[in-house]
């Protein structure tokens, strides 16, 4: 019920060419892709960048941080990384990431294991599910917030190879067929 | 186990000392109604306030509730034209259209609603339509908390930003710009909520009337 994408919540007035921020001042989202408050360079350094003139349609997934200054029409999946939507950036679709920071516009549901941060003047319509929701007061947010417990940080441990299961002649078919190879592992033979 | 964090129902020593803070009996009663031992659905129509998000959704101690946020006054100002807002005259069906679009949720889907002082900034016919719709959203026996300024003598006033400092303390600060505000007294408030089961008034200082309404 609450996780449905709130497309219906969009104000019924036709969307103007520039995305307007509801509020007394009725300021428009800046069209410049050089945000007035540039995301912390230290945080976004080394991240992939979708530039201001780029419009991408379709699903994006990967294992590196991403900064969006352009427009994405589709879902974004960066489960182990950070997504930053710059002040001129626009994501129309669902987001799943480790951390999400929004300076621009998001129309869609967001899920982040660690944190979702919606900055001043950002505009977000959609539900969020995260361990730590942070919304600055001059942001426009319309949606449902559900807080989840943060997962304990995963420690990369080199596990020894699992021992071969003992042979049980009496139960030849005990192991289900789909357990022969785990996803991502090559089949033997 | 309480659904809310333990600090919610208690008193934070810092809260009472915070500037512009006040005891809120209405909030205390509403918070008590949320102690169901399971996550509930709360709706806050005052816009995003970090303290309220933390208080209601905090999962570190309690179950953590789901919180729907919208700034209903901004939605109203965005939906209606400046002329409609200025004149308070609406084409047939416009108010219903607004209420349907802004409050498009299943019936009985809210376990508590925080409308704060927002109703006072709507024209009477919009306020009535919103109140009617909110009653449908509320689960049976659920509460709605509203604030009314009783000293509004025609002058424009800025709506409050309402922060929940703890389970019985609010901090209220006016958030400019000022807007036209409607006059309410206990009788007109009672009439506004006449279709609700119960309307409870709490005396508050500084000409502020806290009203807790049961669906």
Number of strands of chain B: 9
Q: Uncertain regions of chain B: pLDDT < 50 for 5+ in a row?
A: 1-8
How would you describe the shape of chain A?
A: globular
**pLDDT average of chain B, as an integer?**
89
- Rounded to the nearest angstrom, the radius of gyration of chain A is 21 Å
The end-to-end distance of chain A, rounded to whole angstroms, is 47 Å
Question: Helix/strand/pairing class of chain A, anyone?
Answer: mainly beta
Major sheet attributes of chain A: 13 strands, parallel
Notes on the structure:
By secondary structure, chain A is mainly beta. Helix content of chain A is about 0%, strand content about 35%. Chain A has a domain at about 45-145. Chain A has one helix spanning about 40-45, and strands at about 50, 55, 60, 65-70, 70-75, 75-85, 90, 95-100, 105, 110-120, 125, 130-135, 140-145. The longest helix of chain A has 4 residues, at about 40-45. Chain A starts with about 40 loop residues before the first helix and ends in a 42-residue tail after the last strand. In chain B, β2 (about 40-45), α4 and β3 form a beta-alpha-beta unit. The two termini of chain B are about 25 Å apart. The interface of A and B includes residues 11 and 23 of A. β13 of chain A pairs antiparallel with β3 of chain B.
């Amino acid at each position: 019920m609450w996780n449905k994408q709130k497309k219906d919540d969009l104000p019924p007035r036709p969307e103007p060419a520039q995305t307007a921020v509801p509020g007394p001042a009725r300021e428009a989202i800046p069209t410049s892709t050089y945000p007035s408050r540039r995301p912390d360079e230290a945080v976004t350094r080394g991240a992939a960048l979708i530039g201001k003139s780029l419009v991408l349609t379709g699903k994006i997934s990967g294992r590196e941080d991403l900064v969006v200054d352009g427009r994405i029409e589709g879902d974004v999946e960066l489960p182990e990384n950070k997504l930053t939507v710059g002040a001129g950036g626009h994501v129309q679709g669902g987001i799943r990431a480790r951390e999400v920071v929004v300076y621009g516009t998001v129309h869609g549901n967001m899920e982040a294991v660690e944190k979702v941060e919606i900055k001043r003047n950002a505009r977000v319509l959609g539900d969020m599910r995260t361990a730590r929701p942070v919304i600055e007061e001059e942001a426009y947010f319309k949606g449902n917030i559900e807080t989840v417990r943060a997962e304990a940080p995963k420690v990369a441990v080199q596990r020894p190879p699992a021992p071969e299961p003992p042979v049980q002649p009496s139960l030849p078919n005990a192991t289900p067929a789909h357990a022969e190879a785990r996803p991502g592992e090559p089949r033997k033979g | 186990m309480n659904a809310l964090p333990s600090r919610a129902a208690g008193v934070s020593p810092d809260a009472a000392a915070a500037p512009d803070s006040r005891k809120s009996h209405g909030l205390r009663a509403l918070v008590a109604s949320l102690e169901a031992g399971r996550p509930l659905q709360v709706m806050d129509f005052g816009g995003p306030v970090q303290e309220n998000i933390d208080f209601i959704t905090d999962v570190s101690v309690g179950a953590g509730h789901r919180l729907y946020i919208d700034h209903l006054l901004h939605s109203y100002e965005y939906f209606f034209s400046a002329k409609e807002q200025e004149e308070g005259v609406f084409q047939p069906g416009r108010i219903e259209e607004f209420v349907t679009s802004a409050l498009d949720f299943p019936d009985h889907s809210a376990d508590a609603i925080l409308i704060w002082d927002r109703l006072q900034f709507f024209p009477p016919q919009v306020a009535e339509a919103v109140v009617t719709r909110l009653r449908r959203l509320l689960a049976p026996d659920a509460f709605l908390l509203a604030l009314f300024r009783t000293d509004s003598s025609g002058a424009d006033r800025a709506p409050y930003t309402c922060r929940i400092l703890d389970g019985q303390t609010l901090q209220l600060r006016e958030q400019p710009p000022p807007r036209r505000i409607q006059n309410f007294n206990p009788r007109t408030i009672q009439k506004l909520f006449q279709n609700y089961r119960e309307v409870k008034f709490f005396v508050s200082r500084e000409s502020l009337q806290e009203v807790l309404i049961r669906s």
